[in-house]
C-alpha cells in the first residue's frame, strides 16, 4: 500500500526521463551537454593525469630496483668482456714469443751448429738486488741443465747458468758485475771483453787504443766465440759511447744490452753447441 501512495512521484520521474530522452534525440540538450563537457572534461583530464603521476610514483621503487639489477648485469658482462680481451691479448703475446723462439730454434744450426741442443725454460723468479743480476728458471739438473750453459733469446745473449737445482736453475745475467764474455765489433771485427756493470749496462774494454774507428756509436757488438764458453755471432748490444784517453792503452766502449732483462718471460738454454774449431761430434754442455 505504501508503494501505491508514491505512484505520482514515479510517474513524474518516468515522464521526466521520457522528456529528456526526446529532447536528447532532437538535439535540444546539445548546448547543455557541451557546457557540461567543457566543465567535466578538464576535470576528468586533470584527474587522469593525477592518477598517472601517482601510479608513476608508486612504480619508482620497482623501476629503481630493475635498473640496479640491469646495471649489475651489464657490469658483469663488461667485466667478462674485459677478461676475455685480456686473455686473448695474453695468448697473442705468448704465441708471438713462442713463434720467435721456434724461429730461433730453426735457425740455430747456422749459429750453434747442426747438433745444437736447445731447451725452452720459463722465468719463475728474479733477484731483487740491484747489485747482483740473476733470473730463476723452471729447468734444473733433471732436465740436463749444468752450470756454464749459455742462455739466449731471439733478441740475443741473456747470460749463463750459474747454480743448478733438481727442478730449477739460476741464470747469471750478462749485466752482472762478475759476468764476462769475449766479443767483437761487427763492423770492424775488433775483439775485446764485455763485462757487466752495476745497473743495466755493459762495458767493452781491451780494444786497441792505437786503432782509430775501431768502435763507433751505433756499432753492434756480437759474441766472438773465442774461449768456447759462448756461441759466436750472438747479439750482445749496441755501442752508445766510446771513451778514448791518450794515457790508456785501450779504449772503452759503453753498450746498451739488446735484451730487456726485466721483461723476460721465456728463455732458451743451450745445452750443446759447436764451439769454434770443434768437429761436429755431440758432447756434453760446454762449461767455461
Layout: helices, strands, pairs:
Elements: H1 2-5, H2 7-26, H3 30-112, E1 117-126, E2 134-137, E3 150-153, E4 156-164, E5 169-173, E6 180-185, E7 191-196, E8 202-208, E9 220-223, E10 235-243, E11 250-257, E12 266-272
Walk me through the structure:
There is one protein chain. This protein is an alpha+beta fold and 288 residues long. β7 (191-196) and β8 (202-208) form a beta hairpin. 37% of the residues lie in helices and 27% in strands. The chain has three helices and twelve strands, in the order αααββββββββββββ. The longest helix is centred in the N-terminal third of the chain and has 83 residues, at 30-112. It has helices at 2-5, 7-26, 30-112; strands spanning 117-126, 134-137, 150-153, 156-164, 169-173, 180-185, 191-196, 202-208, 220-223, 235-243, 250-257, 266-272. The chain folds into two domains: 33-112; 113-272, Thrombin, subunit H, CATH 2.40.10.340. The strands form two sheets. It has a six-stranded antiparallel β-barrel. The chain is rod-shaped, with a radius of gyration of 45 Å.
Amino acid at each position: 500500500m505504501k508503494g501505491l501512495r508514491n505512484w505520482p512521484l514515479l510517474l513524474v520521474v518516468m515522464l521526466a526521463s521520457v522528456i529528456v530522452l526526446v529532447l536528447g534525440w532532437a538535439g535540444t540538450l546539445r548546448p547543455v551537454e557541451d557546457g557540461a563537457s567543457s566543465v567535466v572534461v578538464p576535470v576528468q583530464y586533470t584527474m587522469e593525469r593525477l592518477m598517472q603521476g601517482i601510479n608513476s610514483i608508486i612504480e619508482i621503487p620497482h623501476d629503481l630496483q630493475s635498473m640496479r639489477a640491469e646495471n649489475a648485469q651489464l657490469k658483469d658482462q663488461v667485466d667478462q668482456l674485459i677478461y676475455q680481451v685480456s686473455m686473448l691479448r695474453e695468448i697473442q703475446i705468448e704465441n708471438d714469443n713462442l713463434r720467435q723462439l721456434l724461429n730461433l730454434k730453426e735457425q740455430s744450426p747456422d749459429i750453434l751448429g747442426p747438433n745444437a741442443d736447445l731447451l725452452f725454460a720459463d722465468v719463475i723468479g728474479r733477484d731483487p738486488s740491484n747489485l747482483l743480476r740473476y733470473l730463476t728458471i723452471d729447468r734444473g739438473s733433471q732436465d740436463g741443465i749444468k752450470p756454464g750453459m749459455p742462455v739466449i733469446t731471439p733478441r740475443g745473449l741473456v747470460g749463463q747458468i750459474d747454480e743448478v737445482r733438481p727442478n730449477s736453475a739460476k741464470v747469471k745475467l750478462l749485466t752482472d758485475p762478475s759476468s764476462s764474455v769475449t766479443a767483437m765489433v761487427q763492423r770492424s771485427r775488433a775483439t775485446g771483453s764485455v763485462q757487466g756493470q752495476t745497473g743495466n749496462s755493459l762495458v767493452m774494454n781491451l780494444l786497441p787504443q792505437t786503432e782509430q774507428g775501431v768502435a763507433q756509436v751505433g756499432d753492434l757488438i756480437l759474441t766472438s766465440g773465442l774461449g768456447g764458453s759462448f756461441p759466436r755471432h750472438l747479439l750482445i748490444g749496441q755501442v752508445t759511447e766510446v771513451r778514448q784517453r791518450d794515457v790508456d792503452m785501450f779504449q772503452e766502449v759503453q753498450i746498451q744490452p739488446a735484451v730487456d732483462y726485466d721483461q723476460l718471460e721465456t728463455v732458451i738454454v743451450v745445452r750443446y753447441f759447436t764451439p769454434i774449431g770443434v768437429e761436429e761430434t755431440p758432447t756434453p754442455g760446454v762449461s767455461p
